[in-house]
Write a structure and sequence with these properties.
The protein is an all-beta fold and 122 residues long. It has no helices and 13 strands. It is rod-shaped. This is FCRL2 protein.
Length: 122
């Protein structure tokens, strides 16, 4: 079940084969609510956020509770969206990749942000 499944629903049934009639129920309104997002956290590989120049950096975003979170990745000081999904992989990191990273999780109804994690390229 997804948030976009909210709407008005009814059912229709075949009542009498001889009369060839269908009967339709009264419509009902269904509203799907998401579970509020809580406990958004970020983990860094290698541990400690220190990565050697040219190596790979992997950031992972997790949500303790919530409905179908979609993650987006951000670095402080950069207005650009770095990526989407539960993981962000930066291959062959350079000096410009040092900084404070965070992820945002959204279920379409609400949004929550992780604490920042400092990444240092050595």
């Amino acid at each position: 079940l997804q948030l976009h499944h909210s709407g008005r629903y009814s059912c229709r049934g075949w009542v009498d084969a001889e009369l060839s009639s269908w009967i339709q129920s009264a419509p009902v309104t269904v509203r799907v609510h998401g579970v509020p997002l809580l406990g958004v956290s970020l983990s860094v590989q290698p541990p400690g956020g220190q990565v050697a120049l040219g190596d790979c950096l992997v950031l992972s975003c997790t949500v303790a509770t919530g409905t179908g979170p979609l993650s987006s990745w951000h670095r402080e000081g950069s207005g650009a969206l770095l990526g989407t999904g539960p993981h962000l992989e930066l291959h062959h990191v350079g000096d410009k990749d040092s900084g404070h990273y965070h992820c945002r999780a959204s279920d379409g109804d609400s949004m929550a942000e992780s604490p920042t994690s400092n990444v240092t390229v050595l």
